[in-house]
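PROTEIN DATA CARD
Card holder: Helix-turn-helix transcriptional regulator
Chain length: 120
Origin: Halalkalicoccus tibetensis
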Amino acid sequence: MSETQSTPDEEVRTVHDLTAFQQTILTVLSENPQYGLAIKSELEDYYESEVNHGRLYPNLNELVERNLIAKSELDKRTNQYELIDEGYDLLLGELNWKLSKIMTIEERADDITQLFDNAA
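Structure generated from the sequence above:
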């Protein structure tokens, strides 16, 4: 099982409490804070299809309510969203779990190591 995150009221959360779309939003925000239309653009590149506002903004608001991302006002019409520690911890726990499964075979572990070396 992936790592969990405890909320102030001791409710235990995992990345599995989120939809795949919400997990992808967290991943997009892991690089840097972004405003809604920039997030939308990255999601459209990832999914290779249009992401409509009626899907994006309710999911962003839910991630804010779950204290996984922070929302701040850039100007009167534009909000910025930022991954906070709780969201990062959930993503990192999921990544660690996935890597632990993949890296059980030595050849695959070498592939992963090479992938990270090339990314650096």
